[in-house]
Design goal:
Distance between the termini: 24 Å
CATH superfamily of the largest domain: Single-stranded right-handed beta-helix, Pectin lyase-like
Number of domains: 2
Number of helices: 1
CATH class of the largest domain: Mainly Beta
Length: 413
């Protein structure tokens, strides 16, 4: 039996609350929610539910982040509590999504939550506070939120939407581990296709502790943070034919233990930091057929993580590098720390007369180069750890096995 399709009319999409109500109703049975052509400013994030596919009409369905507002906290606010006192609750409504932080705890310890009740100056939250927040450090509730997000959902999809982060009207950025224009945590089996996102004060796409995701034919550009941020143990992920361009941080930032990921046919260009950054426990990843060009840092930067959390067992295949390391770095690819068992094959690394092809630091081991072309490089290689023997391993999403998910408490066949 095919999934039911509910097509909303423009008069049924007057605000984010109306669309959220339709998502929630459809979640009872599952199915497809088709948005019409519209240009809608959101006063809250849209929360995707398990079994729901949210569709738009491509460039003709635009969801725009509303301008953020600040509500200073008043009184005592401590870890785990599901309410906060404000100096003023004017303009807030039940159902809105907000972020709470202070000057010291603005990043990983920020709290993202939905308002569940308002009683005078007190506001209830559907999540406990991630930390104590100090009034002397300007503790505040801000209407900062992902445009679309999901928490602990499975078999959901997001397709054919245009998302505008409206960064000029949103000066309050949040760490990508907690937020993003599109954000998922503890999700499984999510597909994102045909999404065009730009201009968010934070990461374009961030997901944490997720598995079996596919991101295809999407673009995430001109964000204050990273374009793409697979993080916190995310496993069995596919990026296919995506673009990440002009972001203020990295094009693709592999966070901690992002593994068994395939990045294929993607463009990572003109980002202020590296095109791709790989770090602690980011292993068994495959990067193939990608264009990585004109980034501020190296095309690929392997971060200097030590054993036992070193990067290992990754392959770069049939990629094209050019014009990278514009503002920092000396190589088109730079590998640091105790990284080992890195294969770079059938790729072109154009040094532009300025940079080295592949640069390694002292403790790197077992970097294997095979059939690469390195024109205009000051030197093709520099550093330690280059070997003539290929380490045998398999990598990428196609080779994920059941025990590769055990850190997520997920048991896939």
């Amino acid at each position: 039996m095919s999934a039911p399709i509910i097509k909303l009319r423009p008069e049924e999409c007057t605000d984010a609350a109306a669309i959220q109500a339709a998502i929630d109703r459809l979640a009872l049975s599952g199915g497809i929610l088709q948005l019409p052509e519209l240009d809608l400013t959101l006063d809250r994030g849209l929360e995707l539910r398990s079994g729901v596919e949210l569709r738009g009409c491509g460039a003709r369905t635009i969801l725009r982040k509303g301008a953020s507002r600040i509500h200073p906290l008043n009184g005592y606010h401590n870890y785990g509590m599901r309410d906060v006192p404000l100096e003023s609750s004017a303009g807030l409504e039940v159902g809105m999504t907000v972020t709470i932080f202070d000057d010291k705890r603005r990043w990983f310890l920020a709290t993202f939550a939905r308002i569940t009740w308002i009683d005078g100056l007190w506001v209830g939250l559907d999540q406990g506070l991630e930390s104590d927040y100090d009034a002397t450090e300007h503790a505040r509730l801000v209407t900062t939120f992902p445009l679309i997000f999901g928490q602990s959902i499975h078999r959901a999809a997001l397709r054919d939407l245009t998302l505008d982060g409206n960064r000029d009207a949103n000066p309050h950025g949040i760490d990508g581990c907690r937020n993003g224009a599109v954000y998922f945590t503890r999700g499984d089996g999510i597909e994102i296709t045909g999404v065009r996102e730009s201009g968010y004060n934070g990461d374009g796409l961030s997901f944490q502790m997720c598995s079996r995701m596919t991101i295809r034919d999407c673009s995430f550009s001109h964000n204050v943070g990273n374009g793409l941020h697979p993080g916190a143990g995310s496993t069995d992920i596919r990026f296919e034919n995506c673009r990440s361009e002009g972001n203020d941080a990295y094009g693709l930032f592999f966070c901690v233990r992002a593994n068994h990921i395939t990045t294929s046919g993607c463009t990572l260009a003109n980002n202020k930091e590296a095109g791709i950054s790989i770090g602690a426990r980011d292993c068994f990843n495959l990067i193939e057929d990608c264009d990585i060009a004109n980034n501020g840092g190296p095309g690929i930067s392997v971060r200097p993580d030590p054993k036992p959390v070193e990067v290992h067992s990754c392959t770069v295949r049939r990629c094209r590098f050019s014009g990278n390391a514009l503002t920092w770095g000396r190589g088109q690819i730079e590998i640091a720390g105790d990284a080992r068992d890195i294969v770079i094959e059938q790729s072109t690394l154009d040094g532009g007369g300025r940079t080295i092809g592949v640069l390694t630091t002292d403790r790197v081991a077992a970097v294997f180069l095979d059939r690469n072309n390195m024109p205009n490089c000051r030197a093709e290689t520099q550093g330690n750890g280059f070997g003539s023997k290929r380490t045998i391993f398999v990598c990428g999403a196609d080779h994920c096995q059941p025990d590769h998910y055990r850190h997520l408490s997920i048991h896939h066949p």
